Amino acid sequence: MTENRPIQQLGAEVLRQQAAPVDDFNTREFHELIENMRSAMLAANGVGIAAPQLGESKRVVIVASRPTARYPLAPEMAPVIMINPSFDVVDTMMVKDWEGCLSVPGVRALVPRYRAVAVEFCDESGLPRRLTLADFPARVFQHEFDHLQGLVYLDRVETNRDIISETEFFKRLAGQELAV
Ligand code: ZN
What we know:
- The chain is an alpha+beta fold.
- The protein has a single domain, classed as Peptide deformylase (Peptide Deformylase).
- The chain contains three helices and six strands.
- Strand 4 (about 105-120) and strand 5 (about 130-135) form a beta hairpin.
- Zinc ion (ZN) binds near residues 101, 102, 103, 143 and 147.
């Protein structure tokens, strides 16, 4: 078991850096980083995580949509570890929906994202893979990819009126006014 590393919070310099590609898939540090990301994400009820959130400016993300306390209505998918990801837009339609971030606690906001993307990445062993994602998993991927570019989801919000507190978010969710 690895001890959970603290999740970097908005304002930390590492969240504003362009992350570096992974070039060696055989180091112990690399595999420890993935394990740390997995356990930090699970412990925090996240549906995705990016290495900079653990203070490592590396191009590694996990996309793991599933229903959690933070996202009760998220669809279930097998978690995917993506190293050095890049993507093409499959559906140029932009959809606005709610997002939150483990690095920005207490807040949710409506964020426009492409509805579907085709992602190219390497798996943990360095093998190239391709995966098409649509709807919520596509949103999670685009959110995590932004972390590798030094962006956070608040950078993409169209108006401050689309930002709400998490308390208000869950109140609306209970009232069925929101779909996540
Ligand atoms: Zn995030």
